[in-house]
Design brief:
Largest sheet: 5 strands, mixed
Number of helices: 11
Number of domains: 3
Distance between the termini: 44 Å
Radius of gyration: 22 Å
Order of helices and strands: HHHEEHEHHEEEEHEEEEEHEHEEHH
Shape: globular
Strand content: 15-25%
Strand order of the largest sheet: 4-3-5-15-6
Number of strands: 15
């Protein structure tokens, strides 16, 4: 049986929540859909769904596999719809939601490239740390930092991102270089504050386990760009994403420490409602993916 048909069947059933509804959408019989999912589970050697006559739910492995299927199908749809469609045929609105700092530096900054290719599109950005319901608010595309596993949304990985503890060489010379997580207690550590809630916990991985370390410092701010500026000024240690400090790490202005305790990649993803597969959203995803994949983009802060 065609592997692509098996995956399409699984995604359709996961989206609709039942074989009957998915069969109507895919224009085949429920029994055929069931056989395709059975074949997929047998080939993979895992259970993807729990099925009854009325209800279908995903197993934990099913939710993880759905995320990978979304990325695969998104890439295929971008190819089939044409990475370079006739610009005169591309029009309408594209409403994008993104975090403020990342959105300014790495999303809205590329609006000009997109509009140069597709001048008929009306682009609208909402850059906010508050995440409204993208379905209720009718967003076409959301840019998120961190893995999102939700069967109601399609996710596409845009870039790999890590969290690092970093400081200027001058700060480390004055205060010493932390070698163990316990050493952070002796350092001035930047903190994030959100509506008077000060986040004084940094997360690490030690011997395969997630570890939360309470840190302390004499400065905090709700704006990530300010936190990076303070780190560059040598005020303290910062726990920041590589998309924020990549150029400074590459130049040696900042130095990362405790790298052996770093968390696994905290990917940058594009998310859009499964019921609303916008062609404009897929084209914008393709543009960002190509820009982010360009050599040295994350260490220079610009497209080469």
């Amino acid at each position: 049986m065609n592997k692509y048909k098996e995956i399409r069947a699984f995604v359709a059933v996961a989206t609709e929540g039942s074989l009957a509804k998915a069969a109507i959408k895919e224009k085949i019989t429920p029994s055929m859909l069931g056989r395709r999912i059975d074949a997929l589970e047998q080939r993979l050697g895992i259970k993807l769904t729990h099925r009854t006559t009325r209800l279908l739910t995903l197993t934990e492995q099913g939710r993880l596999f759905l995320k990978h299927c979304d990325e695969l199908l998104t890439d295929l749809e971008l190819s089939e719809s044409g990475l370079f469609p006739d610009a005169s045929e591309v029009s309408g609105q594209l409403l994008v939601l993104a975090p403020p700092y990342f959105g300014r530096e790495h999303v809205a900054a590329h609006a000009g490239d997109f509009l140069a290719a597709y001048p008929g599109v009306q682009l609208s950005f909402n850059l906010t740390n508050d995440y409204p319901d993208p379905v209720r608010e009718d967003y076409d595309l959301c840019i998120r930092i961190g893995n999102i596993i939700d069967p109601n949304f399609v996710t596409a990985k845009l870039a790999t991102n890590r969290r690092v503890v970093c400081a200027t060489p001058a700060y480390l010379e004055r205060h010493g270089t932390p070698r163990r997580l316990e050493d952070l207690a002796d350092h001035n550590c930047l903190a994030v504050n959100l509506q008077a809630d000060r986040h004084r916990d940094w997360l690490f991985q030690e011997r395969g386990q997630l570890v939360s370390v309470k840190v302390d410092g004499n400065v905090d701010c709700s704006d990530g760009e300010v936190l990076v500026r303070w780190a560059r000024d040598g005020l303290c240690l910062a726990w920041r994403s590589t998309w924020e400090v990549g150029p400074q790490l590459a130049s040696g202005e900042l130095v990362s420490v405790l790298d052996e305790f770093a968390l696994p990649s905290f990917d940058i993803t594009a998310v859009y409602p499964r019921h609303k597969p916008s062609r404009n959203a897929r084209l914008f995803i393709g543009l960002l993916h190509d820009i982010y994949a360009a050599p040295n983009y994350w260490t220079t802060g610009r497209r080469m």
